[in-house]
Design a protein that fits this description.
Blueprint: H1 3-29, H2 41-57, H3 62-80, H4 85-116, H5 126-137, H6 154-163, H7 170-180, H8 187-218, H9 223-264
Length: 277
């Protein structure tokens, strides 16, 4: 066996073992979720990969390791219904959440150890706790939760808020007036406005995540509810991505025109194009 594989294989096996143990420990703490299929995605995936690596290292025996790894993979495929596209999406989401949880747990353990040595005591971040809840309980997006029904259209939300007499908070009213009153003088000012809007959206996203921290660790609300707050933050961050795409479209539309102007000079003024062109 190549030395490089041995050097890589043992740390990989150790990491997979820790990941599997953390996943099983999480399930053991929540006995009511033992029968939730999504809760077992991560331990099955980590266990299958672990025995595959051990088989390659010659520890578990090629035949035994392969059979155990294949058996765990088969159970995972059956639980996740990997013969469907939705099954693959669920598996990806759960494994991603599980990895995030494991990373946050390791960081939290390190923080608590640092706290025990005289520093500040560690505290689980809302992302770690919520990722654990989402992975174990299979909490869907608020936009796809069958228990909540279909999401209302923005116009319906506005009509309901108006009927209830809910005022627009002053910061939002000022922001709306600032956006509506913009009239960029040139492409540089247009770009600065778009970039500033994107920076503001990212700041709002961070604020939602900080708000989620308060609700989870201060007010002690359910992680399932806080998951929706963090999702609102992710949605705000997505607005920044949308704005970046909007400005890309400006470049696509006017890029060729700007190149022509650079090569030939300013375009002539006035009505110089006929309707026949």
């Amino acid at each position: 066996m190549p030395v490089i594989f041995t050097l890589i294989g043992w740390p990989l096996a150790l990491g997979l073992l820790v990941l599997a143990v953390l996943s099983v420990a999480r399930i053991a703490r929540r006995r009511q979720e033992w029968l939730v299929p999504q809760a077992w995605y991560m331990p099955l995936a980590a266990g299958s990969a672990l025995f595959a690596v051990l088989a390659l290292l010659g520890v578990a025996g090629p035949l035994a390791g392969t059979l155990i790894a294949g058996g765990l993979a088969a159970v995972l495929a059956w639980l996740a219904q990997l013969w469907t596209r939705a099954g693959w999406h669920r598996l990806y989401a759960q494994l991603r959440a599980g990895l995030s949880f494991a990373g946050e747990t390791a960081a939290g353990i390190g923080g608590r150890l640092a706290g025990s040595r005289g520093g500040e005591p560690g505290q689980d971040s809302p992302a770690a706790v919520v990722a654990e809840a989402v992975a174990a309980r299979g909490i869907p997006s608020v936009m796809e939760d069958a228990h909540l029904g279909a999401a209302p259209a923005p116009a319906d939300v506005g009509a309901g808020l108006a009927a209830a007499g809910v005022p627009v908070p002053e910061p939002w009213a000022n922001l709306a007036a600032w956006i509506a009153g913009r009239e960029p003088a040139d492409d540089l000012e247009l770009r600065m406005f778009t970039d500033g809007d994107a920076a503001g959206a990212l700041a709002v996203a961070e604020a939602y995540h900080a708000y989620g921290d308060v609700l989870l660790n201060g007010v002690r609300l359910s992680p399932a509810y806080v998951a929706g707050i963090l999702e609102a933050g992710d949605s705000a961050a997505g607005h920044a991505s949308l704005l970046a795409q909007v400005h890309k479209r400006f470049g696509v539309i006017y890029g060729a025109v700007k190149e022509w102007i650079s090569a030939h000079g300013p375009l002539p003024k006035g009505d110089f194009l006929s309707d026949d062109l």
